[in-house]
């Protein structure tokens, strides 16, 4: 493994990361966009943005590899963190430090790595943007520039990263351990307990501002058949895909939560009924555009949705709003035996 000490102290790094308030927070579409672009720009199967904390890399965004944390000493990024500069390993099996690495000798059998440091406002290295391939490769000057450009974008997002509205209030009042306990471990979005707290805060803000608020309840169509026919591992992958799609297709700051099983809840603040309905349609259409690939076939994953909207000036409890959204979802399921449709329950 790589034992070289980091160029900056862990104390400084932790202090700066904590000041960003982005540790142990849910999936964030801003960072997922960057890693997807990195995948495309360098034509690699895996791209990630990670922060370092107490000897571990915590992945803020990951494409192509189902992992959330990794010991720094067991990662390729240790070299990037130590050197504080772009590191490119064209063939890991020809590299003295990497050739016996567990990620090279065993799954996922990485043969190529490129990692760029991400710094805070004081120049302290707090994380990395990295890409990986299972084949050795050379990178062109244009690809290096693309990686540097994306690294700059990732760094800028970290420096300006602030969850807004109800999420900001929840995050600011909790330490990392309590924040982490509010994130669903499978999908990396808020869990049901967090959803209930977020909705109470959102309702309070809507009443104070006299603004519109929508709650959307969504579930995966025929999820039991997916589990029974393709296995629970495939079912888990479908849930992760749906969660990531929800995060990508709502607005920055909207709260996406796993409410239980294959059911999701989305909180949309400061929104009209028409805007909320449009977001639901976009979520369902985008998800249907990309079939889910298994080892033996393709699954067309679809969702049904129900929405309840609190009009400005209308007094209503959080429980009632969820109840109305749940009723709308039930109506959508009942009237869509031949093809799911979104149900709307406006209040």
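-> sequence recovered:
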């Amino acid at each position: 493994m790589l034992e070289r000490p980091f160029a900056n102290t862990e104390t400084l790094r932790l202090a700066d990361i904590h000041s960003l308030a982005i540790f142990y927070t849910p999936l964030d579409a801003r960072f997922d966009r960057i890693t997807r672009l990195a995948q495309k720009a360098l034509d690699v199967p895996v791209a990630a943005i990670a922060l370092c904390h107490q000897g571990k890399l915590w992945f803020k965004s990951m494409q192509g590899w189902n992992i959330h944390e990794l010991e720094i000493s067991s990662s390729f990024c240790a070299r990037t963190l130590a050197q504080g500069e772009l590191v490119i390993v064209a063939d890991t099996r020809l590299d003295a430090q990497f050739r016996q690495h567990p990620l090279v000798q065993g799954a996922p059998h990485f043969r190529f790595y490129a990692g760029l440091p991400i710094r805070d406002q004081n120049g302290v290295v707090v994380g990395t943007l990295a890409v990986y391939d299972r084949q050795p490769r050379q990178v062109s000057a244009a690809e290096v520039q693309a990686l540097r450009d994306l690294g700059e974008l990732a760094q800028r997002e970290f420096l300006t990263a602030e969850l807004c509205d109800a999420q900001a209030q929840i995050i600011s009042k909790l330490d990392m351990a309590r924040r982490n306990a509010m994130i669903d471990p499978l999908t990396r979005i808020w869990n049901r307990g967090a959803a209930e707290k977020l909705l109470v805060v959102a309702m309070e803000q809507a009443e104070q501002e006299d603004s519109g608020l929508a709650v959307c309840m969504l579930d995966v169509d025929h999820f039991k058949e997916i589990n029974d026919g393709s296995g629970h591992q495939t079912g888990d992958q479908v849930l992760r895909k749906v969660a990531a799609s929800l995060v990508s297709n709502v607005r920055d700051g909207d709260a996406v939560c796993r409410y239980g099983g294959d059911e999701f809840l989305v909180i949309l603040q400061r929104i009209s009924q028409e805007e909320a309905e449009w977001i639901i349609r976009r979520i369902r259409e985008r998800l249907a555009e990309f079939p889910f690939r298994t080892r033996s076939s393709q699954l067309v994953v679809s969702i049904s949705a129900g929405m309840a909207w609190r009009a400005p000036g209308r007094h209503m409890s959080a429980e009632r709003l969820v109840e109305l959204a749940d009723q709308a979802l039930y109506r959508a399921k009942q009237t869509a035996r031949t093809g799911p449709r979104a149900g709307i329950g406006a209040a």
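Residues 87 and 115 are 5 Å apart (CA to CA).
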